[in-house]
Amino acid sequence: MQDIIQKMQSLGFNQYEAKAYLALVRLGSASAYQVSKDSGIPRARIYEILNGLSKQGLVLKEEINEAAQYSPLPVDVFLESMQSNWRTNFESISESLKELEKTELTPDNRVATLKGADHILSFCRTLLKKAEQKAVISFWGDMYEELLADLQATSEKCGLKGIVFEIEQPLQGLDHHRITSYTENIGHQKWFILSIDGKEMIYGPSISERETAFYTDDPVHIYLLENYIWHDILVNRLVKKQNDEVEKWIATEREQFFSM
């Protein structure tokens, strides 16, 4: 019950309003005293709460033998009303926000921090939808699977390029990174990069390990990280044409470069 109360609060009801409506749904029709007793709302507040809900049209009030009886707006009607209000508010807010948002590029290119796995994934989906010419990615399996449907949609309208790890048969335009001792033992350091049209980019560590990422429209960041992806693709393609000795040599050189 607490779960549905919290969900109703997210729709704009306070706790007492949610409890009162739910009590009436259970009781069907009841006096203020019965609603107070069933819901746990103090008797000193129950008339105020029920009258407020009545003014909103969510509770029906009848005078029967000089006593007030309350009944809930039928659940189907209540849900339709909530959905209609949400849709109206969403469309209004969307229009207002888009009018406020600056569409022109600002001279101060920025790097912003994003928090939360859902927000990061939503940002990635938004960028993929915005892509007009190309999307360049470097993804490990978890991010690739989360965004597969969005990547497919992007590949159908513009170029999709990049490299993926832990995916045997990636979408057209993407290279599969060879399996090495380095990739097998990389642990939590599975960073992702998503760049669109050379204008916007989001990058960060695996969202399953750390729900933080970075957004930038800074051309220097974008140039460096897109070149990082190309370097990874180039080395991957060259090694595939060579033999195991090249792989061992690369592993040794990497270890020496990053050692203290």
From TrEMBL:
Family matches, as SUPFAM superfamilies: Winged helix' DNA-binding domain
Pfam family, any one: TrmB
Superkingdom of the source species: Bacteria
Naturally occurring in which organism (per UniProt): Viridibacillus arvi
Alphabetical list of PANTHER family matching this protein: HTH-TYPE TRANSCRIPTIONAL REGULATOR TRMBL2
CDD domains: PLDc_like_TrmB_middle
Domain Transcription regulator TrmB N-terminal: 8-75
Protein name listed in UniProt: Transcriptional regulator
